[in-house]
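Pasting as-is:
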Amino acid sequence: MHTVQYMREEFLTVLTLLTLTINVGADGSQSQRGSYNFGKKLPSEKARYRDSVTGAEITMLTTSAAKDNKIYQTHPNWTADGRYVVFMSDRSGTNQYFAVSTETGIIFQLTNDNQPNNAFLSRTSNRMYYVSGRTIWDADIDSILRCEGLEDPNTFRRKVADLPDGVTPSGTTSVDSNGKDIYMGVQYDEDSWGLLALDAHTGQFRKIVDSDFRVGHCQAHPSRSGLMMYCWETGGDSQQRMWIATADGRVNEPFYKETYDEWVTHEVWWGRQKALFTIWPKNEEMLKKPHGIACIGLQDRTLKILDQKKYWHVGASADGKWAVGDTFEGKIYLVSGDTGHATLLTQGHRPGGASVHPHPSFSPDGSSVLFCSEKNGNWDLFLVGVQQDD
């Protein structure tokens, strides 16, 4: 029975992709890449199938031949009104930001810049901060969605500031819960890094802290103004991964203090008082020690292991009650913060030779999980519904 269901699932997926490829080609959006521009509206690629193992209905938001990559799980992926998912895609011939309606599947091009990056979506209004070259921009997403693609892009975006001389970005950019202060990791030279704050209203920078290690994954607390988390970035296992700092620079210290030879990675805020991260068991000896999805309290710094699997990345629900973890095999699990019970939501998203990082993220209301999948042979954006009961 599972074999028949799986074959049917694969057939429907291939049929959908063939249909969508024909539609996109007729529209000229793939074959005539020069037609892409700021504000362009693209036809829906949305399709659905049922997971052959879990039975869950999976919504494929993108299904073209393009490489579509979601925003990192430490940052908002949805617009503030919950109607659009913002993502990066090379469908225009260069990497640009796009927004897809989760209801209709219609896709809108948000940028037409020189290597836009480091997007951060406002949690209070449909706006997006991003970096292009050495400039930080503030884009009005609602206005872009209403335009016809012919206007000057500067009509719908505002220049916040240029990066200071001698400074390059290091890691991510994040916006304080006050909606005004932008935090970013920076590099000064080959041996020095730091955190800067930028006032989005005045365009003025100020130093938060200096660092003698590479700064990465700067993320403002989603509800506590003036608080941020960042990491010692090595691209692998660092001596002390997680750090916490205040915007005035008075606090700058390890968050979870590593004790034994742990591989700590992929930290993310979890509600108001906690953070999630993964402890990767890099060898058989580490499998005998605490590993998997872990959380740490902001006040008491107590550690709790939620579930011990070989998790890769972890995403956090806004209410601090649920976690979602992915694995190198392309499985996505929902994990209860109360019981640690793990439920397989969906699988098959990293077939042999796949390079995709799923980076799962909860929707703002916690009803679904967004992730990247290579099930169809290239990077696409998928959604799976979440039933939050133990």
